[in-house]
From TrEMBL:
Keyword RNA-binding: no
Membrane-crossing residue ranges in chain numbering: 53-77, 152-172, 210-231
Pfam name, any one: FA_desaturase
Signal peptide: none
Keyword Transmembrane recorded: yes
CDD domains (UniProt xref): Delta6-FADS-like (cd03506)
The Fatty acid desaturase domain, residue ranges: 63-329
Organism of derivation: Candidatus Mycolicibacterium alkanivorans
Alphabetic keyword roster: Membrane, Transmembrane, Transmembrane helix
Domain of life: Bacteria
Protein name: Acyl-CoA desaturase
Source taxonomy: Bacteria, Bacillati, Actinomycetota, Actinomycetes, Mycobacteriales
Length: 363
């Protein structure tokens, strides 16, 4: 659990300073923000059309490679910079039905309504509270030492690899609460309606990428099928990497239900900062990450347009420094390496892990 604390008065000051940053952004929202997201949507749609067209010429290796890459980028933009951010309500203030987070649907296996509950509500409300935030391990992995070890977790590295490769399906099945089914707390029958909705969305996605477009391609159907599968794989691996590096690298902390009970707004902000981590990089990297490379700012202000996170990140860092609160940021390879190390370490029983750590420290 967290070892850094703020007094109630310190938390209130911390919260007010962050609220001032938020208020300044809200007061400045305008046409430039609308133009930005509409241009990203136009670019994403153009890239999807171009990628699929190139795959129809996929018998030629350069066309297949280009088509797969362009389609993969379009899927990443759809999920990360458009779908994720629009569904957070970042553009509700525009009144544009196409940017309405309550009705937006995205190009992935997870039904949008279920994601809005599991992510927007559950994860962002109970961020890093062990036993309440089901994104800690997604009901599959052990990603915190405060999760009780069981022999099942010896497979942690294997489960992590499968989740990365099949990430859209792992996210889709999140609302099934499979860990509760395994524990006998609920039955599969209790989740029948949830599964039916997931199954309908999965069927549509599979039919589109692996049946409809390959059939339209006629004799080059195998190339289109392979291109679509590879593009989905690239999107899955990229999304997994960005999300896990924003939540689980070294330095991120978990909290107990007890220590977060009756928390003030400032204390809620405090938990968001300590439970998140940023990724450093250039403008293209931030775009392709959906600006989730600014995971700290996103957790503080999930309903602010994500393009604004780069602008306010130095201000947020400054507030954290004044209050002695760590601001976790690093390059993707570095953060990902610590995530992988954590996955392997937490696969082991606590006593084995602690003994190995003791031996390494003594050496």
């Amino acid at each position: 659990m967290t070892q850094i604390t703020l007094t109630p008065d310190q938390a209130d000051v911390f919260g007010r300073e962050l609220d001032e940053i938020r208020d300044r952004v809200i007061a400045d929202l305008g046409q430039v923000d609308v133009d930005y997201i509409r241009n990203v949507i136009k670019a994403q749609r153009s890239m999807e059309v171009a990628g699929r067209a190139l795959l129809f010429a996929g018998i030629f290796p350069p066309a297949w490679l280009a088509g797969t890459a362009v389609l993969a980028v379009s899927k990443i933009l759809d999920n990360m910079e458009i779908g994720h951010n629009v569904m957070h309500g970042q553009y509700e203030w525009t009144g544009d039905p196409a940017l309405c987070g309550r009705t937006f649907e995205w190009d992935t296996a997870c039904p949008a309504d279920q994601w809005r509950h599991s992510h927007n509500f559950s994860h962002h409300t109970y961020t890093n509270i062990v036993g309440m935030d089901r994104d800690i391990g997604y009901g599959v992995l052990r990603m915190s030492p405060d999760q009780r070890w069981r022999p099942y977790f010896l497979g942690n590295p294997v489960y992590a690899l499968l989740l990365m490769v099949l990430f859209q399906y792992g996210v889709a099945l999140h609302e099934m609460e499979t860990e509760r089914i395994r524990a006998g707390e609920i039955s599969l029958a209790d989740k029948r309606e949830v599964f039916q909705e997931i199954w309908r969305k999965m069927r549509r996605q599979v039919a589109k990428d692996y049946v409809a477009f390959p059939l339209l391609a006629g004799p080059v159907a195998p190339f289109v099928f392979a291109g679509n599968m590879t593009a989905n794989l690239i999107r899955n691996v990229w999304s997994y990497s960005i999300i896990f590096c924003g939540h689980f690298p070294d330095g991120t902390q978990e909290f107990s239900e007890e220590e977060t009970r009756n928390e003030s707004r400032g204390q809620w902000y405090f938990r968001q900062v300590l439970g998140s981590a940023n990724l450093t990089g250039g403008r293209l990297f931030h775009l392709l990450s959906g600006n989730l490379s600014f995971q700290i700012e996103h957790h503080l202000f999930p309903d602010l347009p994500a393009r604004r996170y780069a602008e306010i990140a130095p201000q947020v860092r400054g507030v954290c420094q004044r209050h002695g609160i760590p601001y976790n940021a690093g390059l993707l390879p570095k953060q990902f390496a610590t995530v992988v190390r954590k996955i392997f370490k937490l696969a082991l029983p606590d006593r084995v892990r602690q003994e190995a750590q003791r031996v390494l420290q003594a050496a």
